[in-house]
Structures are given as C-alpha cells and as structure tokens.
Amino acid sequence: MHVHFCLPDLADHPTGGNRYNTALRAAWPEADRITTGTGWPRPDSDPFKADVWLVDSLLVRTPEMPRILSDAPPAVLLAHYLHLADPTQAHTEAIMQEAQYLQRFEGCVVPSHFVADRLSEHGMPREHIWVAAPGLSAAYRHGRSFAEAPAPPFRLLTVANPFPNKQVVPCLHMLEALPDLPWTWRIIGDDALDPEHAARTRRAIEASPLRERITLRGPQPVEAVRAAYRAADAVLCPSRFETSGMVAREALACGVPVLGFRVGGLPETLGATAQNGLVEPYDFGRLGNRLHELLTTPSRYHAWHREAIRTSRGKPAWTETAARVRHALQQVAAA
User: Fold this and answer.
1) Whole-model pTM over 0.90
2) Per-residue pLDDT reduced to its tens digit, 234-245
3) I want to staple 254 with a disulfide (CB 3.0 to 4.6 A). Which of 3, 143, 156, 317 is the partner?
4) 27: Cβ–Cβ under 8 A, 6 or more apart, which residues?
5) Is the pLDDT reported for residue 73 higher than 90?
6) What values do phi and psi take at 322, rounded to 5?
7) DSSP 210
8) Parallel, antiparallel, or unpaired for β 183-188 and 154-159?
9) Is 270 left (phi over 0), alpha (psi -120 to 50) or beta?
C-alpha cells in the first residue's frame, strides 16, 4: 500500500500533532510505501498515484482543499484539532465550514473517543471514524517506580506552546494566589507559533511579583523534556480544551501527577487519575486548592503517583497506534 502524508507547513515545530505525525511515520510497517509532503501535492505528482492520503487537520480550511481532493486518491483526515470538536468554539463560522469539508473525506482518524463523538454529531458516519490514541515511546515506560513526598520548593512544570488556549497567564495568577506555598515553575514551549501571545505571556511573567520563581524555556529536545517530567513534582495542564493530551500522557508514564480541567479528551487520557487531577473547567481557585492538597499531603501524593504509573501501563505503544491507523487506511483504500 502506498500512503501519502499531507502535513502542514509548520511540521518541524514541536506541537502535539506534529509529534504524533512523526512518531506515527517512524512506527509504520516497512511493508508499505510512505511518502510525505508539506501542504498539498502538485497535480500529477507521485502522491496522486498513492492508494490513500492521510491529511493533517491543519490543512482542512485551506482554500484549495476541495479542488485538490476532487482529483486525489481517497483521503482520510487525521483530526488532531478541529473547531467542531472544541466546545469553546460553538456556533462559529469555522465549525460550519469544517462540517461541510468533512464530507470530502472517506473517514477520520481521531485521538480520543471524545473527538469521535463530536465528529459523529456533525455528520461523519460513526463507522468511518477510527480512534487511534497517541502512543508512548519505550523511553517513557521507565518512570519512577516510587516517588518520595515532594520537598520544598515544589517543582511545577508546564509543557505547552504559548497559545491563548493553554491559559498560561491565568495559571500564573493562580500561583500568585499561593505565595506561601514554596513552588517553582518551569514552562517549556515554542514562542514562534504565536509570537504576539508569547510576548504577552513574557510581559505578564516579568510583571509578576513572583517572577524569580519562574523559568521560561523555548522548545527543548525530547530528552530534555523527558528529564523535565522526571524532575517535576507535578505537571500543570490548564488548557481550555485538549483533544487527547500528549503532555499528560507522557507525564503519567514518568509517574508525575497531572492537574488540569475536565475538558475534551483529557479525562479519557488521565483515566483513574482524572478523579483527583481534574477539576471543573476554568475554576482556577479549585485547581489551586487541589495543587496545594497534592503537594502538602504525602499520602495523597504517593497514591496519585502509583495511580499515574498504573494508568500509563494501559496506553498503547506507537507501533499499536500505527497499526490502528494503517487498518483504517486499508479499509478506505480497498473500498
């Protein structure tokens, strides 16, 4: 089978979707022929001879999409993010446009059952939606088997590119309301994807009375991010919405408690740890209280750590994710 990956023009940046695409490609069975390209292929180029296309959802709303797909091989959408899956985007023009464009695809691969349900509500037949949760590389399978109770200063970590959706600034204000809790906060993310919001985030941190507790880093190598997880006492994921939550998945595998909001596919990712780790959407007061409770109650911390390790053991490897996606594409190519 010849599969062509249609990727966005920011494919080299460390987003969750891009990391999913890269890991999927690396885990794909060698029996198939795989080609990749940034943006849409030129007419009559080699990708037009493929059996099936796998299209990153960032390409969905490009003006040329309907014309390209009308002459292309069967195409499956890889729905890392769609406005119509995001409850915070209800009743927007983008949702109506995406719902129309869905009809151009033979099916969708999605990272969570939450997204599958949303796409089904917007007209995609459920039998044409395949859930393929992000995998975990073997390097994340060796988390701390035992975690001592955290000692001050408590090491907090957020791994997120500075988009408004990630709510880094509101999280900063939450931590400012806990000045007597001895915390430090490391933030890892790529400023280049939204320079304007990244600048606002930097200004907010520089203006904070607790700015000396905060370390703001740009994009880091995978090994450095993995080391940051293992050095952290807790990972903060205060997003307004997540289709799945790759950061949460990786943190759990390293035995690190994850705290955030009960949104999108995040409860599905956190599994049994969601009961303690997630609070109602956008309630930063309650999230701060939960963080305080976690860090100052050793018995609660130990239980949370053990549950994180157990939960991560049920997550697929990338080879399993690739096999699920390949099965979906085989069905489409053979139809």
Assistant:
1) yes
2) 999 999 999 999
3) 143
4) 135, 317, 318, 319, 321, 322
5) yes
6) -60, -40
7) T
8) parallel
9) alpha
